[in-house]
Task: structure prediction
Amino acid sequence: MRVLRDLKVIELLLQTLALGFTLAVLLFLIGTARARMQAQGIPFSFGFLQQEAGFSLSEGITWVPGEGLRPYGPTDTYTQAFLAGFLNTLRVVVGGLVLATLLGFVVGIARLSSHPLARGLALAYVELVRNTPLLLQLFVWYFAVLLKLPPVEQALRLFGAVLSKQGLFLPWPRLSSVWGEFQAFFWGGVLLLAVGLALRRGWYGMVAMALVWGAGVVLGGLPLVVEFPVRTSFGLRGGLELSPEFAALLFGLVVYTASFIAEIVRGAVLAVPRGQWEAARALGLSAPQVLRWIILPQAIRIVLPPLANQYLNLTKNSSLAVAVGFPDLFSVYNTIANQSGRSLEGIVIVMGVYLVVSLSISALVNLYNRRVALRWGV
Result:
């Protein structure tokens, strides 16, 4: 009886019952689906993944044994089609997380600015974007903005970037002809940096890496060159190409998610005790120094948990790519399900992939959260 009065034991029992109930429901649903599929002569099998897909994608690369990474083609298998969709999703998610975080922090700090124009613009942006549906915003970006851009002949150019109906082309670094000779210097510098980090002398490791890389550049030349987009008879070529579909999805997700991150950052900064600001100013620190060295390090600990939720939301919202015709994982699944009839097997694969990606993002954020907490003694 005393055991049943222990709060931890009661919580463990409730969690076990909840887990058992969830597993029972899942097994029941899976069993029912398999029984109905068998009654209709449709076995539950993933063997179809080795069949030829027979459809093309507007963009995407896949991995082929013996060939490595290459553009996806109609003669590839369903497995390679799923992989191409997954890599497209990964492109959107990784780029979206980085850009949304940067934009969210900038807007969040602007919401606290003493300048009325910056504060007002940030407030208008947050309230407008947060209170309109993401799907509508994607339509605006795609149909009302990107598809209304001028043709290639009248493309907009700014600092080497080119924007037209064909998409957004950016200057982008690529490996030069001396990369083969530079690799030894590159990996040598990376090894020195790793040694420095292992010895808790990261700064010395970075200096050693820079010296080794500098020696490689002096002896052999630059291993990277910047490739600029140029107009050809077949349209724009060169640099980093962002198709209108990819750009619409990326811009929509970044702008939408950044509005929520901005409010998280604003709330975290305001949650830092006012005495911290006053003490920093009493030491003679300027406003940027107070924010950089005193406030933001403390606000990061408050930001991380809700920030992880926004990262997961962006990952799941990327499935709206089908609305603008971008061939992400979910869009590829729709095509495969309609063509092969393997909707149940396909949705299991898609759910598993999204689950793994979401758990990976959560694990990375939690790992960084623990590292920050240990560093600052929280």
Notes: The chain has two domains: 61-171+239-375, 172-227. The two ends are 37 Å apart (CA to CA). The chain is about 65% helix and 10% strand.
